[in-house]
Amino acid sequence: MNTLNELITVFSVELTRRLRSRFFIAGLLIGVVGIALFVELPNLLSKTIITRIVLVGEPRVTSQAKLLLDRDFSVVATERTIGTPTVADLNSRHADGVVQFVRAGSGLRLIVYAKDPNALRAVSLRRDLVELNLQLATNASAAHVKSLLEIPVDVHVVGSKFKTAEQSEAALGVAYALLIVLYLLILLNGQSVMTSVAEEKTSRIAELLVASVRPTSLLVAKVGASMVLALIQMATWISVAVFFSTLSPPPATQSSGLGTSSDFAFFALSSISVGDVVAFVVFFLLGFFQTAMLFAAVGALINRTEDVGTMSYPVLMPTLAGFFIATSALAVPDAAYVKITSFIPMLSTYVMFERIVASTVPFWQILVAVVLNVIALWGIAVVAGKLYRVGMLLYGRAPSFAQVWKVLRT
After folding, report:
1. Is 282 found in the same domain as 391?
2. pLDDT digits (tens, 9 = 90+) for 51-103
3. What was the pLDDT predicted at 262?
4. Has residue 96 been placed in a domain?
5. Residue 6 counted as domain residue
6. Residue of 74, 114, 211, 221 with fewest CB within 10 Å of its CB?
């Protein structure tokens, strides 16, 4: 009972102290702003980088070309003739370039004048105007040419959890965003545990704490409080992402037929199943406790705060490796190296989650990965508890490898 009371007391004190911390509040707000910018950035960029052009040629041609070029450019004016334009001419028309249409045989030839040739790529112009060129070359109606270009394609899904390409793209986009959230929550809060432990030890507060509270209770309470803070950050960041995604969909989906921006947000979120959400929570908790306990144990071995960065590298490496492998898992979820790493503790926190979202993973594989991570968590907890205890009791010098090995063997 005393142990439970100690645990509750330390947990509540640690949680209250961290909640009131200016660093936590600042980090939470910075995360909110960052998530909002991440969601809105494609829309902001699409409004600033759109290329404004003037079309020059026969009115019958430029009027049809304008409708086709509006997919990728902003047509600010159409003119029948123009001389060789100068920068002053373009500026006076508030344009980035001029596209002149010249009849060449039965088709079209384009003459382009641009401030930035990269903004008026030939491949984009060809793609947009191929319909018009075919119409002029064949003397067919616009409707007939359009019907010929729109080749019927029947897609039959074989062994995929997604019914359409749009659903797959939306789900993978949300999965990538969740992967970033998962990585940041585990890494930032795990490091905050290590920093907190190191500060307490180097300021000799640890001596007072250890004298009145068991080291194990301190360790569990610190990790538990940090987990609650991570859940608060998770709920806040995801809520902000959902809110801003309902305001305006990414530019690529504006004309995708999904309807309003709210329809897009619902479509994207509905592409993630309940099982995917459960997998996210389960692997987040497993990965968080594994990483946070290791960070706490490392923090207890530190005697100088300037050593925090160096001592954190061994824990950072598997976290970074898991993140980068999981990123590639979105594209090749069935690759051999992806399947193998999805069972390795600390790596599978990220890799197995992305496999679950990107493909159909047999339930037994998910169960094996969870069991292996639970076993690893138990082993990490035992090792971290011993290292934390010996580290907190030694002040002024770091424990030697012989002392650490002796503690781990007991």
Report:
1. yes
2. 889 999 988 889 889 988 888 888 999 998 888 888 888 888 888 899 999 88
3. 42
4. yes
5. no
6. 211
pLDDT (0 to 100) of residue 252: 46
**Virtual CA dihedral for 196, 202, 208, 214, nearest 10 degrees?**
60
Residues 205 and 131 in one domain: no
299 with 240, same domain: the answer is yes
Q: Is residue 267 part of a domain?
A: yes
- The sign of the CA dihedral 318, 324, 329, 334 is negative
Contact 307, 320 (CB under 8 A): no
How far apart CA 359 and CA 343 sit, in angstroms, is 16
Of 100, 125, 149, the one marking the end of a domain is 149
Q: Where a domain ends, among 86, 114, 149?
A: 149
Helical pair 122-138 and 59-69, crossing angle rounded to 10 deg: 130
Q: What is the mean pLDDT of the chain?
A: 78
Q: What is the pTM of this model?
A: 0.68
Max avg pLDDT among 225-239, 241-255, 308-322: 225-239
Distance between CA atoms of residues 351 and 183, nearest Å: 11
Which of 182, 197, 176, 294 lies closest to 231 in space, CA to CA? 182
Q: Cα–chain-centroid distance for residue 75?
A: 35
Provide the domain limits for residue 295: 11-43+164-409
Instruction: Kindly report the backbone phi and psi dihedral angles of residue 332, in degrees, each rounded to the nearest multiple of 5, phi listed first.
Output: -130, 70
Please determine, for residue 1, whether its predicted confidence score (pLDDT) is greater than 70: no
Length of the chain equals 410
Nearest to 75 by CA among 101, 47, 49, 94: 94
What phi, psi does 271 have (nearest 5°)?
-70, -20
Domain count within the chain:
2
Is 5 part of any domain? no
